[in-house]
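Weekly sync notes, structure subgroup
Attendees: PM, AL, DS (notes)

Item 1: joint prediction request from the bench team. They want all four components modeled as one assembly rather than separately. Inputs as received:
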Amino acid sequence: MIYNPFPMRVVSKRQEAPGVNTLKLEFVREEDHEFFRQNFKTGMFGLYGIYGEGESTFCVASPETRKEYIECTFRQSGRVTGTLANVDAGDIVTFRGPYGNRFPIEEFEGKNLLFIAGGIALPPTRSVIWSCLDQREKYREVTIVYGARTVADLVYKNELDDWKKRDDVRLVLTVDPGGETPDWQDHVGFVPTILEQAAPSPDNTIAVLCGPPIMIKFTLAALQRLGFSPENVYTTLENRMKCGVGKCGRCNVGSVYICKEGPVFTAAEVQAMPQADL
Amino acid sequence: MGIQEQYRSEAASLLSSGEVKLVIGFGAGSTADRRRPLFARTGEEANRFVLDASCIANLSTYLLTEGLLSDGKKVGIFLKPDGIRSINILIAEAQLKPDQVVILGYAIENGQLTALEGRSVADFNGVNEKIRSLALPPAVQQDIERLEAMSPVERFQFWQDQFSKCIKCYACRQACPMCYCRRCIVDVNQPQWVNTSSHTLGNFEWNIVRAFHLAGRCAACGACDRACPVNIPLRLINARMGREVREAFDYFAGESTDQKPVLASFSKDDPETFIL
Amino acid sequence: MSEPFEPKIVAFVCTYCTYAGADLAGTSRLKYATNVRIVRLPCTGRISPLFILKALQKGADAVLVSGCHPGDCHFTAGNYHARRRWTVFRALLSFTGIPEERIRFSWISAAEGAKFAELINSITEDTRKLGPFTQYQELQTIIETQSTY
Amino acid sequence: MTRILLKNKLDDCIVTWRNAGYSVLAPVKRNEMGSFSEVQKASDMSLDLILPERTIKDRFFPQTEPMIRYKISKQQIDTETMTPPDTKSVCFGVRPCDAAGLEIDDPLFGWDYKDQYWFKRRNNSVIVTITCTASDDFCMCTSVKLSPESTKGSDVMLRPLSNGNGWQVETITERGKALFDSVSVHLSDEKAETAALAQVPVRFNVEQVMEWLANPTSFESQFWKDIALRCIGCGSCTFLCPTCHCFDIQDEGDTYNGIRRKNWDSCSFANFTMHTSGHNPRNTQSTRWRQRIMHKFNYYRGKFGVNSCSGCGRCTRQCPVDMGITETLQAISNLPR
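Output from the run, pasted for the record:
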């Protein structure tokens, strides 16, 4: 039955930021794992759930180059995420997916990559980042611009350190004004501003942009000023979902079903949607 | 001049003088015997108002439309006595400011329309006695008595048959002027007190909870009953609750704007014969 | 032979009076029927009618709601408010066919351990005579088969 | 050769079908509500209803459907998938609009992932439609390019005889033919005239409407705000619609036992699209009503090549505030252009 989820065992839980947790999940049944291995591509999402509470939609934060586990990172806010945040290693949760479309990373080959993320939107970006970094030789320059409200709100802090140390990645970190700590070494300012200061070249470059709606809006404008064309900017949309497979009827923006035709869109596609429905 | 023409021109002058920003009334409906809510913002639009014996809906439910009254401006509204009762309850529950409402009152008796004196909410405080004397329609009264004559097992079966029809479309809630909660108890999911599924058990819970929340607040306008697309006789349960608060606490919901809500107040000598 | 019917009774009690009364019944070594499950709440004013409904759904054959005598409420007036609500809720349940005998209300103070024990015994006896409240409990079982066409 | 089913032979047919393992569903008016319920004999049926309040959709996509039963213990979660029963059914006395609704929903439940709940029931049912000889002020099948005798979604079409004694049988699919072959001994061959079809006026120009909806500027039009002013946001139009298919998935039970269910949901409800963060993409009633109309006459067509409306008119007929698709679409066709 299409609404039956896969049982997943929690391998570990890591707190990323206040109220934000990452779960590392392994498949209980080999056939489910095989299905996932064959179908998962970076950018896809799933419905994570717990029996008795329900299901909740977020992206698969692990890259398509590492399919042994599923990692997901989420903010604790409602009934399902509240319960998921309180699981322990060994507990059984559920996963339904992978659903949706993907970042076409083969088309990115031979190009420069610019990743821009804000706050809790690093997880979907991280899936693409690692998918590309794991085959680093296929891509040219990689720039990551990541910002959060405060230093505490930055997620994947250990990976940020890794990226910082690598000499084949340029990492630009920023926090919103007022969110810095006394020993904060990196930038202070909103992502669009910092992005414009960093001024990555639009030539032969693909941008991947994830963040809250307000950040997307201003960052798109900044990218445009830097000379990026909307066709070369990829972003992800999200909406409330229940089925994940284009039936329950709530995730559409205009005529576009996020769960089937998304969640990955180019900025050009997003601009063509009725903006009032976003 | 008939009452329809009188109210059309009155609505038109309220609008053109700028005293009200909107008049909520009735217009022609999709069939000859249907009337639909009509919102007029100009004197011209006011000419489309219809007022006759088919105008039975309680329009006061629109007054609490999100954002409608937040600008402090006035709204005119066509109301029957049950609608005026609803307004009184809403004011008593601090959901509505009396000075934002201009009432175009009318009553329907035996198919004949009469205009009610007074335009401001305060004008109708004088007709409390009249509102108090509003009796239940004989048919409702008879049905309630018929149910009460049954054994509990039969009554349970009756309601089980009725509630099993419910599809949880919440038309009863949405049509009701008293159901103004921005977040209804069925939408609360931590914890989920009322099952959202519309199986008979979930329907039982929902309908009992709604009836309880309306006890002592229902203006007996019958909006829920008319709205129900599967014809559950909701009027019976709400009328029975109305009778209970009247008998037990001499409370008649909506007779004035300064009533204390019956279940948010008490008297030291309330009846307690059933308490051991 | 099937087991003789043992009623399940859920008692919603306030912590200041009736719960203390039940405690007294225990410390005084009064014997009373073991059919009761006590749910302790801060005040009778906190006892939502939904609690009563849920108890009946989940298999209770009778429900007792009990708190401080009028005038004795720890929060001054919680039980006065509760009393009004019970009056209305009782009428509502009765009108929907839930027998009044299955929903009982009482005032029991911290000193009335004996009254608590007696009341539980009498409710248990009464409910034993009424039999299980299958009519409502069955709704819980039919939800699994309903709509499975 | 035209075959005739006489009313006095209907009981025999029901017995034959029931003996063959079918459950027979027909419109039944009970407790002041018409719905498709199982019948034992012809006299249980209320075939003279123009339309029952509830649609035949209910029998394929029930208002609440148990999907997974779960039991949670300390170290283990046991689940059991719940599936619709294997019973075959004859849906007798369906109106052409309701039958068309089923076919309209098929591609939705079947694109990419197949909803087995829907298709198991679809495959196990035979739809026996009766053409309409009467209509009311709300019927609008002709406006959406269907008619009182459209065969869309039907396996068998019955045409009432003008003498009122029975129906002329017209089988449309193999499945329908097999069903009526099994009762051929109860059918007669006499020549009889069929009653005149209901005359349903065309109430709006659907092409004009679709053209307007397809225009990107229409999305932001003031029209939606004006038309939706009186919508009170209940779900009766969606729940009584033969094509509306939106649903919610809910877990229901106590801490250790429960059932995951698929429940009807409605785009009219504010909570339908509400994010946990509080952001709601469709946060006013006008945006929700716009979604409903756009979905039915633009988006659905774009995906599946068909409008998601079969013209039964229940949305208007049952609306507490006399709204509905007819009025909205009439207003759209009357817009100045």
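Discussion: Chains C and A do not touch (no CB pair under 8 Å).
Action: AL to compare against the crosslinking data before next sync.
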